[in-house]
Amino acid sequence: MADLSQQVEAFLRNALRQKQLEDRLIRQALRDLRTTLTAVERVVGQSGVLSFGPGREQTIRAVVAAVARSVQESFGVPQLAALQEALTPFVEQQLNFARRMVTMAGGDLVNEGAASASTTQVQRIVNDAVVAGKTLSTQLTQSLPALVADRVERFARLGLSDIGGETFATYESAVVRITENNVEALIRTGVQEVGNAAQQAIYEFEADPDWMGPDGLAWTAVLDSDVCPICLTLDGKRFPTDYRKVSPHPQCRCYLVPWKWRNEAMTDPDGNPVQPNRLADGDGAEGALSFKVAAKQWVKDNPETAQAIFGKKLGQRLVDGEISFDRAVKLWQTPKK
């Protein structure tokens, strides 16, 4: 078993590499998206749908259909292919990271090499990554083009009015901004889920099944002020090694680790007992926290962080013991009147 500094360093280095990759892919995707949406804007402007006249309804329908095809062909499909290529070395990194997670915890790799970053495997992992209830492939090649087409139609029909509760002053506000936000969320979530899938391949196909045991994976939330209450609720829940993680919301940063990281006493290479740690950033910026400390307890021990997560009043009620953690989550989920 590695010592504490090695554990924390492994998590930090892996998280940093992933964040850098996400940022790079998002910058490139947004540049490509701008090119596509600029071309769409020209088509909309030249079509005449922004002014009233005979045949306008038919023109709107034709433009909307053309926009969906254009976004699919010029951005969605090429973007999926670009992600498949760019994420190949990332998948290899995540395979090696998961192997280290097993060996650092004293486990054995009884079938090392069974999971690989082959072209076919990476394409499957990227295509099948679940983002907001749909595969990444579906999101990029179908849902995103449909979203842009819908926004263009709304812009054409509503223009500068506030009909339906929306006011579109410009094409930028009506189409570009919301699409950019959507693409950023898709890519950031997609990279996270691709990494999770690669890691889980090691736990399922390479790690010693006897060492992993039944329900050998544990849901693990990132403990900081940006964590979602729903993810805190899932923290520590156990799953079988063939479980396919489905995130409860876009840009979820949760991951799965072997349950033994959280549940068993371990020793370093010299036989000295050590406590497996996880990354944590509460009021005291502790940096690392024992896996044996429950996420719910961590929230209560960090009043300012609790208020950042749940809101000032609700977080303080939780810290003061006025309400339970589960009650706080339920109230947080209740729509505000």
Sketch the major β-sheet. Answer: 3 strands, antiparallel
Mean pLDDT level: 85
Strand content: 5-15%
Helical segment tally? 13
Helix content: 55-70%
| Straight-line distance between termini | 51 Å
Number of strands: 9
Explained architecture:
By secondary structure, the protein is mostly helical. The chain has a domain at 1-212. It contains 13 helices and 9 strands. A 3-stranded antiparallel sheet has the order 4-3-5. Strand 1 and strand 2 (134-135) form a beta hairpin. Helix 1 runs antiparallel to helix 3, helix 1 packs antiparallel against helix 6 (171-205) and helix 3 packs across helix 6. It is globular.
Q: What are the salient characteristics of this protein?
A:
globular, two-stranded antiparallel ribbon, 3-stranded antiparallel β-sheet, 337 residues, 8% strand, mainly alpha, 9 strands
Short structural description:
With 337 residues, this protein is mainly α. Helices cover 61% and strands 8% of the residues.
Write the layout of secondary structure elements.
Elements: H1 4-47, H2 56-86, H3 88-104, H4 119-128, E1 130-131, E2 134-135, H5 136-158, H6 171-205, H7 209-212, E3 217-220, H8 229-234, E4 238-239, E5 255-258, H9 259-263, E6 266-267, E7 273-274, E8 277-280, E9 287-290, H10 295-300, H11 303-310, H12 312-319, H13 325-333
Antiparallel strand pairs: 1-2, 3-4, 3-5, 6-7, 8-9
Helix pairs in contact: 1-2, 1-3, 1-6, 2-4, 2-5, 3-6, 5-6, 11-12, 12-13
